[in-house]
Amino acid sequence: MKIVFYTGPQCSLCDLADIELANTQQFSSLNVEKVNIRNSTDLYHLYGARIPVLKREDNGAEIGWPFDTNALETFLQ
């Protein structure tokens, strides 16, 4: 499954989200693409106040911070 991880530079919450993502049972089967929202005006306006955000490419579902490993497990099912 492909996941887009919307992040930004020096984002401590994004670091925490990265740890939670790595703790999921599905992590080894995920294709995670990190996208710096500061590289796009559109993405910055869409996600600037919400990062970190994970988006599933298969169905477009998103989960934004705060989330824990259990919430991620449910999101990835």
UniProtKB/TrEMBL annotation:
Domain of life: Bacteria
GO molecular function, one term: isomerase activity
Coiled coil: none
Gene3D superfamilies reported for this sequence: Glutaredoxin (3.40.30.10)
Pfam families per the UniProt record, alphabetical: Glrx-like (PF05768)
Keywords from the named record: Isomerase
InterPro entries, A to Z: Glutaredoxin-like, Thioredoxin-like_sf
This protein's name: Glutaredoxin family protein
Organism of origin: Alteromonas stellipolaris
Biological classification of the source: Bacteria, Pseudomonadati, Pseudomonadota, Gammaproteobacteria, Alteromonadales
